[in-house]
Every structure is written in C-alpha cells, then in structure tokens.
Design a protein that fits this description.
Layout: E1 4-15, E2 21-28, E3 31-38, E4 49-54, E5 65-78, H1 84-120, E6 122-123, E7 126-127, H2 132-160, H3 165-196, H4 208-214, H5 217-220, H6 225-238, H7 242-250, H8 257-271, H9 280-299, H10 302-312, H11 329-336
Antiparallel strand pairs: 1-5, 2-3, 3-5, 4-5, 6-7
C-alpha cells in the first residue's frame, strides 16, 4: 500500500471526470488492485489521464460521465495488492447509501408533485384527491415513499455507529439490500406519479420527465441489481454474525402476525441453500420488505404500517393503486400531501 505505479489502459466508464482524484481498479501481477489516481502529479504537472469523450446518457446529464485513457498515469496503491474489490467496497458502501437517499428523494418529489396536482385538479366537479380510485393510487405511492425513507434513515443510523458491532453488520448487509430495493422501485413509482398528472406530467414544462430520466441511474451505479443481490448472499454466507443481526433486527414481528409469518418464511428460505443464487432477488426483496414493515410499525402511524403490511406482505395487486379494502387511504393521502400551497 502506498507504492507508486503507472497505469496504462482504457476505461469505458469514468464517472465525474472533473474530480481532482479518482479511486480506480487496475490489474497487477497479483490481480485486481485499488489505486488512487490524482489529476495532477506532485510537481503540479498534469497526470497522464485523458478524457476521450463524454457519455450521452439517458439522464443524470448535469453530472458528467466519460471514457478515459491512462497513458502511464501516476497512481498509488490503496489497500492490499490483489484485493481491490474489498478495498473499494468501503467507499462503495457510502455511495450505495447515496443511491438509496437519492432514490428516496426522487420518489418524495414525485409524490409531492402528484399529490399537489390532485389536491387542486377537478374532474367531474370533484377534486381528484377526493375520488376513491385516485386515493388508492396516491396512498400506494405514499407508502412506497415513506418506506423508502424509513429504510434509508435506518441505514444512516448504522453508518453513524460503525463502531458498534450490530450496526456494522447491519450496514454491511442493508447497504446492498436497500440499494437494490429502493433504487429498483423508484422508476415505476415516478412513472405512476407522472400518470396521476395526466399530460401535465409528461411534458417538459413539469419536473416529472427529469425525475423519470434520473431514476434509473441509481439502480445501475455502484453495482446493478444482480451485483447487489449476490453481495447480499456474500454478506450472509461469509460475514460471521450478519444473518443473526438481520433476524435480531426483524425481531418477532412486533405484534403483527403477518410480519411474524413473513419473518418465519424468510428464515426457512435461508435454511434452504439449494439454487440460492437463482432466488437471490426474491430473498433480497423479502428482506427489504420485512425491514420496511418493521420500521413503519415502530414509527407508530397505524394507518401507514397497516396499509404497507396489507399490501406488501398480503399479496395485493402488482401495480400501484391496487391496495386492498379496509385501509385508511384518506389519512395516508392527507399525511403525504403538502399543506398551504
């Protein structure tokens, strides 16, 4: 570690090429290794780092991405040689958390736009927000947003207390779980929010098109869906105590029989190791939903937690707006709608 190298090669994707330094992976005799590559050398001359072109991306256009070449670029080894991925994961844990928070924020903004529109738009002489089917849709979107925020904030607490063994193991697992689930849910949720606004949500005069274009990047950055789910399996199988921390966190269902049944099914699923990679996405989803349900129960709003558990653990419809009967959707919509505008 700390030894100077010269890197030679082409990188097809380099995010934020305007930075002053980069963590990058490169091959050495002992395998993939992590390096810190500065834009300028210690003598203040420019490092041999050349931008080939900027990427023309679906979204995230205000943040440049590029192809680059290293032509004997100075870089210093970070961490153990041949252990580049475990070394860089320490940084990736924070940026995966950024993806969770970013997707939660995009969903909240989309919900704000949709709920505000529906609170003022009349159809058939009645406000959209007072019509039962639209209430079903808005409440469902609100549940998704609140659950995403709850899991993100719980993850933030863990990252603030990595000196605690329980929190460190929780963070090791839920970084990948939350990054997968929250970022995967955002594009469809934002699409539904735009639909609530009709044509007004589809034109560039509103913010919804930009939110929709921005949403997919977080599920791709820092490892796409399969990478996250395989990392979940890696953490559970190779990191001592992580599985115990997960079920300690989930508890006994916090007085809700539906959550208790979900936790029992999850425990059984992990005891069955056959074709576990094939099932990795389902297992990761089930962890995420269990944690979100538990956090919403702890938060204490019965309307929200009951609706989330009934719809996410109870086998409701596959699209937003298919909540089951008997839920207090009016209270959920009122809770999530901006007031005073």
């Amino acid at each position: 570690p700390g030894q100077a190298y010269e890197l030679v090669g082409h990188k097809w994707f380099c995010s934020a090429p305007m930075c002053d330094a980069f963590l990058t992976l490169a091959q050495t005799d002992k395998g993939l290794t992590c390096f810190l590559l500065p834009r300028h050398r210690p003598d203040d001359t420019r490092n041999q780092f050349y931008i080939q072109r900027l990427k023309n991306k679906l979204g995230n256009c205000s943040n440049a991405s590029s192809e680059v070449e290293f032509r004997g670029a100075l870089a210093w080894m970070v961490g153990e040689e041949g252990r580049g991925v475990p070394t860089i994961i320490e940084m990736v844990a924070m940026t995966r958390f950024d993806c969770m928070v970013g997707s939660s924020a995009l969903m909240r903004q989309a919900l704000t736009q949709a709920s505000h529109h529906c609170a003022h738009r009349k159809v058939g002489g009645k406000l959209l927000s007072e019509q039962p089917l639209m209430q079903n849709v808005l409440a469902d979107l609100a549940l998704e947003s609140e659950a995403a925020l709850a899991l993100s904030l719980r993850m933030g607490k863990a990252l603030d207390h990595l000196d605690d063994g329980h929190e460190a193991k929780f963070a090791r697992l839920v970084t990948a779980v939350g990054k997968y689930w929250i970022c995967k849910r955002a594009p469809a949720m934002i699409n539904e929010a735009a639909e609530c606004m009709g044509g007004a949500g589809y034109v560039e005069d509103s913010i919804l098109p930009r939110l929709y274009r921005e949403a997919p990047v977080n599920s791709t950055w820092e490892g796409s869906g399969n990478v996250q789910c395989l990392d979940v399996l890696r953490a559970l199988s190779k990191e001592p105590g992580v599985l115990d921390v997960l079920f300690s966190e989930l508890g006994d269902g916090h007085g809700d029989k539906r959550l208790a049944a979900h936790i029992s099914q999850l425990q059984a699923a992990f005891k069955d190791t056959g074709d576990i990679q094939y099932r990795a996405r389902q297992l990761t989803e089930d962890i995420a939903l269990g944690l979100q349900a538990k956090l919403l129960l702890e938060a204490g709003n019965a309307a929200v937690s009951d609706a989330f558990i009934a719809s996410r653990l109870g086998g409701a419809g596959r699209v937003y707006g298919a909540l089951p009967r008997g839920l207090d959707v009016e209270a959920i919509v009122a809770r999530s709608t901006p007031q005073g505008f």
